[in-house]
Amino acid sequence: VVGGYDVDTGRRSVYLSEENREVLVKLENLKLVEDSTSSVAPYPPLVNIKDKMGTVALQELVMPESFTGLTRPPGISDPAVTAAFLLKHGADIYLEDVDGVSPFRMVSGYGQLIGEHGVARVIMDHARHVGKEGTKARKRGELKCWNCDKDLSKDAPRCSKCNVARYCNRDCQVAHWKSHKAKCKELSASKQGVRLEHPSVMSDGLHRAAVSFRTGRMAESGSYAKPRGVGFDKKFVVKVQAAGETAPMMVYDETRQCQFDINWGQKGFGEILAAVRSEPAWQGRKTFMKASFGKDGVCTMFPDRAGVKSHYTW
Fold first, then answer.
1. Among candidate residues 97, 90, 94, the one with its CA nearest the CA of residue 107
2. How far is CA 50 from CA 45, 57, 63, 95, 288, in A?
3. Which sign does the torsion angle of CA 86, 91, 95, 97 carry?
4. C-alpha closest to that of 283 among 106, 114, 136, 67
5. What is the CA radius of gyration of the chain?
């Protein structure tokens, strides 16, 4: 039986049931060999097997004294190196323990308080990589004919109305129009952006702060307005954070000069929440998208341009 990860020795405990004793084994010496004659379902990767407390090795690296890299007992290898090793061999950062807490959730919380270091940086970088790969996979999936599902090239013809649907040729486009018509209207509207109609500004007197994962510094709340230096109707990047399905979503730019809530029931809430939920890098809790402010002071957001920022620094 595979036990927990021992921080002091950098090894994993293994209980030998036939010999009734426990030993500590280096991670690189632990392997699972499948029995081709067995009818039992294949084992999950060793790095994802939970111990009797319901935790996995990666979670035991995510501790304030170890994942930050600030303190480490003499002679013990860098926990960040061990975390990278576990991820290389298939460790799941979203695997939850008995309390529903995953390694990703643990480092997200610590990272907000003191910034990303050590194990936290390794896990968050892995999460971003997974998110980017997911985005690439979705884009590859988009390069298929919406009618016959054949693979297409990047220069394949698109629907002239929504500029999203792709087809092999005009015959496929005509054949698909009846089923595409309603979606085409929705996509066309989405590309024009969603006007928020003055969502709730953070003016309720409660203290709220956004925290940088990199630096750990907190910034004061901003307002429902464009950042200084950005022109009217000019797009800028905002981050959107969502909690529950009906909880207010927080929107803010890098400077926090623009920062406000979007409440459930307000126009655009559903479209923006759907874009957040589709982002795998943060388990559907947050994403980036473009926004702009018109001369009338109303913000327009563009959920069709949501995704992971290429260089996540705030």
1. 94
2. 11, 8, 17, 10, 34
3. negative
4. 106
5. 24
Q: By three-state DSSP, how is residue 23 classified?
A: strand
Phi, psi of 258 (to 5 degrees): -110, 115
Residue 105's identity, in one-letter code, is R
Distance CA 122, CA 87 (A): 9
Place of tokens 């473009």: 290
Q: Taking a C-beta distance cutoff of 8 angstroms, is the pair 90, 51 a contact?
A: no
The total number of residues shown for the chain amounts to: 314
By C-alpha distance, which of 80, 163, 168 is closest to 125?
80
What is the mean pLDDT of each successive set of 10 residues along the chain, which is 314 residues long?
66 73 74 54 72 81 54 65 88 82 74 60 82 66 82 84 85 92 76 74 42 42 82 92 84 90 85 80 82 92 74 48
- How many CA within 13 A on the CB side of residue 59? 23
Residue 24: beta bridge partners?
13
In angstroms, what CA-CA distances link 172 with 150, 152, 176, 183, 188? 11, 12, 6, 16, 20
* Helix, strand, coil share of the chain (percent; to 5): 30, 20, 50
For 62, the token pair is 């995510």
Q: What Cα–Cα distance (Å) separates residue 182 from each residue in 177, 257, 261, 301?
A: 9, 38, 30, 22
